[in-house]
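Example record

The entry below shows one chain as it appears in the dataset: sequence first, then C-alpha cells.
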Amino acid sequence: NSIIWNERGLDLVFGTNNAEALRIDYSGRVTKPLQPSFRVGSVTYVTTGTTILHTIDFHDIGNNYNPANGRFTAPVAGVYYFGAQAISGSAVTSAEQNLRFMKNSSAVCDARARSYTESSLHLKTVIQLAVGDYITVVVGSGSVYAISNGYHNQFMGYLIG
C-alpha cells in the first residue's frame, strides 16, 4: 500500500501493490483509473417482476456491474448517480409500464408510463451506498422492449464522490 504526493502536479495518488488505485487531482476531483463508472444495455424482452440483465457492456470501469444477476455493486462507499431507460414492450394502450431501481431488495424510485405503446421510460437518482450495496433495475409492471444493439434499454451509473 502506498500514498504518493506529486508536488509538480499537486495530485494525491493512492495505490496498492505498486499500482495506482485512486488519484485526487489538484482541484479535488477523484479521477481514474478506478473511479467506478458503467453503461450497459439489454437485448432481452422482460416482463413484470423481473430484474433486467443488461449484457451489452458499453463500458465498466472497475468491473462492478455483473450481467449474470443485473447488479452494480458499490466497491467504495459514497454518493452515486444512476440512470436507466427502457422502451415499453406493450401493444395495449391502456397497460401501465413501471421501471424501478432497487437498492439491495428495497425500491428506491420508479418511472411509469400509461396509455402509450412503445413509450420511453427514463429513471434517474442520486443515492448514497455503502461498500457492498447493490443497485438493480426491475420491471415493476408491464414489459420492456429491447433490440439487438442495446440502445433502447440501458443502465448506467458512476461515483459522484
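Notes for this example: The first strand starts at residue 2 and ends at 6. The radius of gyration is 18 Å.
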